[in-house]
Design a protein that fits this description.
Jelly Rolls, 2 domains, 6-stranded antiparallel beta sheet, 9 helices, elongated, binds calcium ion
Protein backbone atom coordinates (compact mmCIF):
# COMPACT_ATOMS: atom_id res chain seq x y z
CA UNK A 1 0.00 0.00 0.00
CA UNK A 2 1.34 3.42 -1.00
CA UNK A 3 1.36 5.70 2.08
CA UNK A 4 1.35 8.86 -0.14
CA UNK A 5 -1.85 7.73 -1.86
CA UNK A 6 -3.48 6.98 1.51
CA UNK A 7 -2.47 10.36 2.83
CA UNK A 8 -3.90 12.10 -0.27
CA UNK A 9 -7.19 10.17 0.04
CA UNK A 10 -7.35 11.04 3.72
CA UNK A 11 -6.84 14.77 2.96
CA UNK A 12 -9.45 14.68 0.18
CA UNK A 13 -11.94 12.84 2.39
CA UNK A 14 -11.32 15.25 5.21
CA UNK A 15 -11.79 18.29 2.93
CA UNK A 16 -15.04 16.82 1.50
CA UNK A 17 -16.30 16.22 5.01
CA UNK A 18 -15.42 19.82 6.03
CA UNK A 19 -17.18 21.14 2.93
CA UNK A 20 -20.32 19.12 3.77
CA UNK A 21 -20.29 20.44 7.32
CA UNK A 22 -19.85 24.01 6.01
CA UNK A 23 -22.73 23.54 3.55
CA UNK A 24 -24.99 22.19 6.33
CA UNK A 25 -24.01 25.08 8.60
CA UNK A 26 -24.80 27.62 5.86
CA UNK A 27 -28.15 26.05 5.07
CA UNK A 28 -28.95 26.00 8.79
CA UNK A 29 -27.97 29.68 9.16
CA UNK A 30 -30.11 30.70 6.17
CA UNK A 31 -33.08 28.66 7.44
CA UNK A 32 -32.74 30.17 10.93
CA UNK A 33 -32.62 33.65 9.40
CA UNK A 34 -35.99 33.02 7.76
CA UNK A 35 -37.47 31.93 11.09
CA UNK A 36 -35.89 34.47 13.40
CA UNK A 37 -36.25 37.75 11.56
CA UNK A 38 -40.01 38.09 11.09
CA UNK A 39 -39.96 41.50 12.77
CA UNK A 40 -37.53 42.76 10.18
CA UNK A 41 -39.19 41.06 7.22
CA UNK A 42 -42.75 41.76 8.26
CA UNK A 43 -42.52 45.46 8.88
CA UNK A 44 -44.54 46.91 6.07
CA UNK A 45 -43.81 50.39 4.79
CA UNK A 46 -46.85 52.16 3.39
CA UNK A 47 -44.82 54.99 1.89
CA UNK A 48 -43.54 54.17 -1.57
CA UNK A 49 -40.11 55.40 -2.63
CA UNK A 50 -39.59 57.11 0.76
CA UNK A 51 -35.83 57.27 0.07
CA UNK A 52 -36.39 59.14 -3.23
CA UNK A 53 -34.11 56.72 -5.06
CA UNK A 54 -36.69 56.44 -7.84
CA UNK A 55 -36.92 60.22 -8.36
CA UNK A 56 -40.39 61.56 -7.64
CA UNK A 57 -42.19 58.34 -8.52
CA UNK A 58 -45.22 58.00 -6.21
CA UNK A 59 -44.77 61.64 -5.06
CA UNK A 60 -46.47 64.73 -6.36
CA UNK A 61 -44.42 67.91 -6.43
CA UNK A 62 -46.06 71.29 -5.85
CA UNK A 63 -45.42 74.97 -5.17
CA UNK A 64 -46.94 77.08 -2.40
CA UNK A 65 -47.02 80.11 -4.67
CA UNK A 66 -48.02 79.62 -8.29
CA UNK A 67 -46.40 82.85 -9.50
CA UNK A 68 -43.02 81.91 -7.99
CA UNK A 69 -42.88 78.13 -8.35
CA UNK A 70 -40.49 76.26 -6.09
CA UNK A 71 -41.49 72.63 -6.39
CA UNK A 72 -39.88 69.95 -4.30
CA UNK A 73 -37.18 68.19 -6.34
CA UNK A 74 -35.04 65.11 -5.84
CA UNK A 75 -31.32 65.76 -5.71
CA UNK A 76 -28.07 63.78 -5.47
CA UNK A 77 -26.43 66.76 -3.75
CA UNK A 78 -27.12 65.38 -0.28
CA UNK A 79 -28.73 62.19 0.92
CA UNK A 80 -29.07 60.24 4.11
CA UNK A 81 -29.26 56.91 2.37
CA UNK A 82 -28.77 55.80 -1.18
CA UNK A 83 -28.05 58.54 -3.67
CA UNK A 84 -30.90 61.01 -3.52
CA UNK A 85 -33.12 62.97 -1.20
CA UNK A 86 -35.98 65.41 -1.61
CA UNK A 87 -35.07 69.10 -1.52
CA UNK A 88 -37.71 71.60 -0.45
CA UNK A 89 -36.38 75.11 -0.78
CA UNK A 90 -37.72 78.50 0.25
CA UNK A 91 -37.50 81.65 -1.81
CA UNK A 92 -38.04 85.36 -1.54
CA UNK A 93 -41.64 86.34 -1.05
CA UNK A 94 -41.43 89.41 -3.26
CA UNK A 95 -44.64 91.19 -4.12
CA UNK A 96 -46.49 88.25 -5.58
CA UNK A 97 -46.99 85.82 -2.72
CA UNK A 98 -47.31 85.84 1.02
CA UNK A 99 -45.12 82.75 1.28
CA UNK A 100 -42.79 81.10 -1.17
CA UNK A 101 -41.70 77.51 -1.15
CA UNK A 102 -42.97 74.11 -2.00
CA UNK A 103 -42.72 70.44 -1.45
CA UNK A 104 -43.93 67.02 -2.42
CA UNK A 105 -46.79 64.86 -1.21
CA UNK A 106 -47.89 61.26 -1.35
CA UNK A 107 -51.28 59.76 -0.74
CA UNK A 108 -51.23 56.58 1.35
CA UNK A 109 -54.22 54.31 1.47
CA UNK A 110 -55.10 52.80 4.86
CA UNK A 111 -57.58 50.05 5.50
CA UNK A 112 -56.96 50.67 9.20
CA UNK A 113 -54.78 53.10 11.08
CA UNK A 114 -53.20 51.31 14.01
CA UNK A 115 -49.66 50.27 14.94
CA UNK A 116 -48.42 53.04 12.73
CA UNK A 117 -44.94 54.49 13.14
CA UNK A 118 -43.92 57.58 11.26
CA UNK A 119 -40.23 58.28 10.75
CA UNK A 120 -38.07 60.43 8.55
CA UNK A 121 -34.67 62.09 8.26
CA UNK A 122 -34.42 65.82 7.71
CA UNK A 123 -31.42 68.08 7.05
CA UNK A 124 -32.09 71.78 7.66
CA UNK A 125 -29.92 74.44 6.13
CA UNK A 126 -29.80 78.22 6.12
CA UNK A 127 -32.02 78.47 9.22
CA UNK A 128 -30.70 80.84 11.90
CA UNK A 129 -30.98 79.87 15.56
CA UNK A 130 -33.79 82.32 16.19
CA UNK A 131 -36.63 83.04 13.84
CA UNK A 132 -36.29 82.84 10.16
CA UNK A 133 -39.88 83.44 9.20
CA UNK A 134 -39.72 79.99 7.81
CA UNK A 135 -41.95 76.97 8.28
CA UNK A 136 -40.59 73.58 7.40
CA UNK A 137 -42.88 70.71 8.20
CA UNK A 138 -44.16 67.26 7.51
CA UNK A 139 -47.91 67.49 7.24
CA UNK A 140 -50.21 64.50 7.65
CA UNK A 141 -53.71 65.00 6.34
CA UNK A 142 -56.29 62.42 7.40
CA UNK A 143 -59.14 62.16 4.94
CA UNK A 144 -62.47 60.88 6.22
CA UNK A 145 -65.81 60.67 4.46
CA UNK A 146 -67.14 63.84 6.11
CA UNK A 147 -64.06 65.56 7.51
CA UNK A 148 -60.39 66.27 7.27
CA UNK A 149 -57.87 66.51 10.12
CA UNK A 150 -54.33 67.80 9.76
CA UNK A 151 -51.28 67.06 11.90
CA UNK A 152 -48.35 69.40 11.25
CA UNK A 153 -44.93 68.25 12.46
CA UNK A 154 -42.80 71.41 12.40
CA UNK A 155 -39.06 70.83 12.12
CA UNK A 156 -38.47 74.61 11.82
CA UNK A 157 -40.89 77.45 12.38
CA UNK A 158 -41.09 81.19 12.69
CA UNK A 159 -40.54 81.56 16.45
CA UNK A 160 -41.16 85.29 16.77
CA UNK A 161 -44.66 85.16 15.36
CA UNK A 162 -47.62 83.06 16.40
CA UNK A 163 -47.67 79.70 14.74
CA UNK A 164 -49.88 79.55 11.71
CA UNK A 165 -52.77 77.49 12.96
CA UNK A 166 -54.11 77.25 9.47
CA UNK A 167 -50.83 76.41 7.79
CA UNK A 168 -50.56 75.30 5.05
CA UNK A 169 -54.05 76.23 3.90
CA UNK A 170 -55.40 79.56 5.16
CA UNK A 171 -58.93 78.29 4.66
CA UNK A 172 -58.70 75.45 7.16
CA UNK A 173 -60.45 75.82 10.49
CA UNK A 174 -57.89 75.87 13.29
CA UNK A 175 -59.71 73.19 15.33
CA UNK A 176 -58.98 70.77 12.52
CA UNK A 177 -55.26 71.53 12.50
CA UNK A 178 -52.89 70.39 15.25
CA UNK A 179 -49.34 71.75 15.33
CA UNK A 180 -46.54 69.72 16.87
CA UNK A 181 -43.27 71.58 17.31
CA UNK A 182 -40.32 69.21 17.18
CA UNK A 183 -37.66 70.78 19.38
CA UNK A 184 -33.96 70.02 19.43
CA UNK A 185 -33.39 69.53 15.74
CA UNK A 186 -30.10 70.92 14.51
CA UNK A 187 -29.17 72.86 11.42
CA UNK A 188 -26.59 71.56 8.93
CA UNK A 189 -26.85 67.93 9.96
CA UNK A 190 -29.19 65.01 9.48
CA UNK A 191 -31.86 64.72 12.19
CA UNK A 192 -33.91 61.59 12.78
CA UNK A 193 -37.56 61.95 13.76
CA UNK A 194 -39.72 59.04 14.86
CA UNK A 195 -43.34 59.41 16.00
CA UNK A 196 -46.05 57.13 17.22
CA UNK A 197 -48.60 58.20 14.67
CA UNK A 198 -51.57 56.76 16.53
CA UNK A 199 -50.62 58.42 19.82
CA UNK A 200 -50.16 61.84 18.18
CA UNK A 201 -53.44 61.49 16.37
CA UNK A 202 -55.38 60.43 19.46
CA UNK A 203 -53.84 63.22 21.57
CA UNK A 204 -54.79 65.76 18.94
CA UNK A 205 -58.40 64.66 18.58
CA UNK A 206 -59.31 62.36 21.49
CA UNK A 207 -62.99 62.33 20.72
CA UNK A 208 -62.92 61.81 17.02
CA UNK A 209 -62.83 58.38 15.52
CA UNK A 210 -60.04 58.63 13.01
CA UNK A 211 -60.09 54.88 12.40
CA UNK A 212 -62.51 55.71 9.65
CA UNK A 213 -59.81 57.60 7.76
CA UNK A 214 -59.11 55.68 4.59
CA UNK A 215 -56.34 57.88 3.32
CA UNK A 216 -53.57 59.97 4.73
CA UNK A 217 -51.66 62.44 2.60
CA UNK A 218 -48.08 62.99 3.72
CA UNK A 219 -46.69 66.35 2.62
CA UNK A 220 -43.11 67.54 3.02
CA UNK A 221 -42.90 71.28 2.71
CA UNK A 222 -40.67 74.29 3.29
CA UNK A 223 -42.12 77.78 3.05
CA UNK A 224 -40.73 81.17 3.99
CA UNK A 225 -42.85 84.20 4.79
CA UNK A 226 -39.96 86.62 4.45
CA UNK A 227 -40.51 89.28 1.85
CA UNK A 228 -36.80 89.84 1.28
CA UNK A 229 -34.58 86.89 1.95
CA UNK A 230 -30.96 86.93 0.84
CA UNK A 231 -30.07 83.49 2.08
CA UNK A 232 -31.01 80.16 0.61
CA UNK A 233 -32.81 77.94 3.10
CA UNK A 234 -34.87 74.84 3.21
CA UNK A 235 -34.55 71.15 3.96
CA UNK A 236 -33.47 67.83 2.54
CA UNK A 237 -35.76 64.91 3.36
CA UNK A 238 -34.92 61.23 3.17
CA UNK A 239 -36.19 57.80 4.24
CA UNK A 240 -39.75 58.93 4.92
CA UNK A 241 -41.55 55.94 6.29
CA UNK A 242 -44.97 55.04 7.67
CA UNK A 243 -44.80 51.47 8.90
CA UNK A 244 -46.92 48.97 10.71
CA UNK A 245 -45.80 45.70 12.22
CA UNK A 246 -47.62 42.87 10.52
CA UNK A 247 -46.82 40.50 13.40
CA UNK A 248 -48.58 42.69 16.00
CA UNK A 249 -51.64 43.20 13.87
CA UNK A 250 -54.92 41.64 15.11
CA UNK A 251 -56.02 38.83 12.83
CA UNK A 252 -59.67 39.89 12.96
CA UNK A 253 -59.13 43.08 11.03
CA UNK A 254 -57.92 43.37 7.50
CA UNK A 255 -54.33 44.45 6.91
CA UNK A 256 -53.46 47.86 5.54
CA UNK A 257 -52.44 47.64 1.95
CA UNK A 258 -50.07 49.88 0.05
CA UNK A 259 -51.64 52.79 -1.74
CA UNK A 260 -53.75 52.00 -4.74
CA UNK A 261 -53.48 55.54 -5.98
CA UNK A 262 -51.79 55.38 -9.35
CA UNK A 263 -48.28 56.79 -9.17
CA UNK A 264 -47.19 59.61 -11.42
CA UNK A 265 -44.95 57.21 -13.30
CA UNK A 266 -46.25 53.75 -12.48
CA UNK A 267 -43.67 50.98 -12.61
CA UNK A 268 -44.30 48.29 -15.15
CA UNK A 269 -45.63 45.03 -13.76
CA UNK A 270 -44.30 42.94 -16.62
CA UNK A 271 -41.09 44.47 -17.90
CA UNK A 272 -40.63 43.79 -21.60
CA UNK A 273 -36.91 44.24 -21.20
CA UNK A 274 -34.52 44.15 -18.26
CA UNK A 275 -34.78 47.35 -16.23
CA UNK A 276 -32.07 49.88 -16.65
CA UNK A 277 -29.58 49.96 -13.78
CA UNK A 278 -29.24 53.74 -14.01
CA UNK A 279 -29.92 56.17 -12.59
CA UNK A 280 -31.87 54.43 -9.81
CA UNK A 281 -29.71 51.29 -9.51
CA UNK A 282 -32.56 48.85 -9.27
CA UNK A 283 -31.84 45.22 -8.44
CA UNK A 284 -32.02 44.24 -12.13
CA UNK A 285 -31.98 40.45 -11.80
CA UNK A 286 -34.47 40.35 -8.92
CA UNK A 287 -36.70 42.88 -10.73
CA UNK A 288 -36.70 40.74 -13.87
CA UNK A 289 -37.24 37.51 -11.95
CA UNK A 290 -40.08 38.84 -9.74
CA UNK A 291 -41.59 40.91 -12.55
CA UNK A 292 -41.74 44.36 -10.93
CA UNK A 293 -39.62 46.97 -9.19
CA UNK A 294 -42.35 47.05 -6.53
CA UNK A 295 -42.41 43.27 -5.86
CA UNK A 296 -42.05 42.68 -2.10
CA UNK A 297 -38.76 40.81 -2.56
CA UNK A 298 -37.26 43.60 -4.69
CA UNK A 299 -38.44 46.37 -2.36
CA UNK A 300 -37.02 44.51 0.64
CA UNK A 301 -33.63 43.86 -1.01
CA UNK A 302 -33.39 47.50 -2.06
CA UNK A 303 -34.37 48.60 1.44
CA UNK A 304 -31.60 46.53 3.06
CA UNK A 305 -29.04 47.69 0.47
CA UNK A 306 -29.88 51.42 0.39
CA UNK A 307 -31.55 52.20 3.73
CA UNK A 308 -29.53 49.92 5.99
CA UNK A 309 -26.06 49.14 4.61
CA UNK A 310 -25.93 52.30 2.49
CA UNK A 311 -27.20 54.56 5.27
CA UNK A 312 -23.77 56.02 6.04
CA UNK A 313 -20.74 57.17 4.04
CA UNK A 314 -18.69 54.00 4.47
CA UNK A 315 -21.69 51.79 3.78
CA UNK A 316 -22.54 53.80 0.69
CA UNK A 317 -18.98 53.36 -0.54
CA UNK A 318 -19.31 49.60 -0.09
CA UNK A 319 -22.66 49.62 -1.90
CA UNK A 320 -21.14 51.69 -4.73
CA UNK A 321 -18.25 49.25 -5.13
CA UNK A 322 -20.68 46.36 -5.14
CA UNK A 323 -22.85 48.11 -7.74
CA UNK A 324 -19.86 48.64 -10.07
CA UNK A 325 -19.18 44.91 -9.95
CA UNK A 326 -22.83 43.82 -10.03
CA UNK A 327 -23.99 46.07 -12.87
CA UNK A 328 -21.05 44.97 -15.02
CA UNK A 329 -22.69 41.61 -15.63
CA UNK A 330 -26.23 41.56 -14.19
CA UNK A 331 -27.99 43.28 -17.18
CA UNK A 332 -26.77 40.42 -19.43
CA UNK A 333 -28.23 37.85 -17.02
CA UNK A 334 -31.49 39.82 -16.85
CA UNK A 335 -31.62 39.95 -20.65
CA UNK A 336 -31.06 36.19 -20.76
CA UNK A 337 -34.01 35.64 -18.38
CA UNK A 338 -36.22 37.92 -20.47
CA UNK A 339 -35.24 36.04 -23.66
CA UNK A 340 -35.91 32.62 -22.11
CA UNK A 341 -38.96 33.45 -20.03
CA UNK A 342 -39.56 29.81 -19.03
CA UNK A 343 -36.41 30.11 -16.85
CA UNK A 344 -38.08 32.67 -14.58
CA UNK A 345 -39.48 30.12 -12.05
CA UNK A 346 -36.06 28.42 -11.90
CA UNK A 347 -34.41 31.74 -11.12
CA UNK A 348 -37.06 32.40 -8.46
CA UNK A 349 -35.92 29.19 -6.72
CA UNK A 350 -32.26 30.10 -7.24
CA UNK A 351 -32.84 33.47 -5.56
CA UNK A 352 -34.31 31.90 -2.40
CA UNK A 353 -30.89 31.50 -0.71
CA UNK A 354 -30.15 35.13 -1.61
CA UNK A 355 -33.36 36.26 0.11
CA UNK A 356 -32.27 34.28 3.17
CA UNK A 357 -28.86 35.95 3.04
CA UNK A 358 -30.47 39.40 2.75
CA UNK A 359 -32.72 38.66 5.77
CA UNK A 360 -29.70 37.47 7.77
CA UNK A 361 -27.71 40.53 6.70
CA UNK A 362 -30.54 42.82 7.81
CA UNK A 363 -30.75 40.97 11.12
CA UNK A 364 -27.00 41.41 11.73
CA UNK A 365 -27.22 45.09 10.74
CA UNK A 366 -30.12 45.70 13.16
CA UNK A 367 -28.17 43.98 15.96
CA UNK A 368 -24.95 45.91 15.30
CA UNK A 369 -26.39 49.34 14.40
CA UNK A 370 -26.96 50.49 18.01
CA UNK A 371 -23.20 50.08 18.60
CA UNK A 372 -22.10 51.91 15.45
CA UNK A 373 -23.82 52.21 12.07
CA UNK A 374 -20.53 52.12 10.11
CA UNK A 375 -19.47 48.95 11.91
CA UNK A 376 -22.94 47.51 11.23
CA UNK A 377 -22.66 48.29 7.51
CA UNK A 378 -19.18 46.78 7.26
CA UNK A 379 -20.01 43.61 9.16
CA UNK A 380 -23.31 43.13 7.30
CA UNK A 381 -21.62 43.67 3.90
CA UNK A 382 -18.85 41.26 4.81
CA UNK A 383 -21.35 38.62 5.87
CA UNK A 384 -23.39 39.10 2.69
CA UNK A 385 -20.27 38.85 0.52
CA UNK A 386 -18.98 35.70 2.24
CA UNK A 387 -22.35 33.93 2.22
CA UNK A 388 -23.16 34.90 -1.40
CA UNK A 389 -19.73 33.80 -2.64
CA UNK A 390 -20.00 30.53 -0.75
CA UNK A 391 -23.54 29.75 -1.94
CA UNK A 392 -23.27 30.94 -5.54
CA UNK A 393 -19.59 30.31 -6.36
CA UNK A 394 -17.83 27.92 -3.97
CA UNK A 395 -20.63 25.39 -3.49
CA UNK A 396 -21.45 24.99 -7.23
CA UNK A 397 -17.71 24.58 -7.98
CA UNK A 398 -17.36 21.93 -5.30
CA UNK A 399 -20.46 20.18 -6.63
CA UNK A 400 -19.10 20.20 -10.20
CA UNK A 401 -15.73 18.92 -8.98
CA UNK A 402 -17.35 16.13 -6.98
CA UNK A 403 -19.51 15.02 -9.93
CA UNK A 404 -16.49 15.16 -12.23
CA UNK A 405 -14.45 12.98 -9.88
CA UNK A 406 -17.25 10.47 -9.44
CA UNK A 407 -17.54 10.16 -13.22
CA UNK A 408 -13.79 9.57 -13.49
CA UNK A 409 -13.97 6.88 -10.80
CA UNK A 410 -16.92 5.19 -12.58
CA UNK A 411 -15.25 5.30 -16.01
CA UNK A 412 -14.08 1.80 -17.09
CA UNK A 413 -10.33 1.39 -17.09
CA UNK A 414 -8.78 1.23 -20.56
CA1 LIG B 1 -32.31 58.42 -0.32
Amino acid sequence: MDPDVNQEEFIQGSSRSSMRRLSCLLLLLISISYLTVPSVCETVDLVQNGGFEDGLNWWMSFSYCIQLPRDGVTTPYRSHSGRCSLLTECGTGGEHCFGVGGGASQNVHLSKTSNLKLSFWVYLYGIPQINSWTDIALIADFWMPQARRTLVYYVAWAENIPIYTDFPLPTMASENVTNLLLHGLQCDKWNYVERNFEEDRNKAWPNSNLDTAQNVTITLIAVTFQRLSLTSKGAFWDDVSLTYDKASEPTTTPAPTPTETPPQTPPSTTPPAPPSPTPTQRCVIATTVYGSTMANEVVYMRHVRDDMIGSNEVGRLLVDEWNIFYYAWSPSVAQFIVTYDFLRPIFQVLLLPLLGIVCLTAYVYVLAAPLNVIFASVIASLLAAILSTTVYVVMPLVLIRTIHRKRLNLAPEA
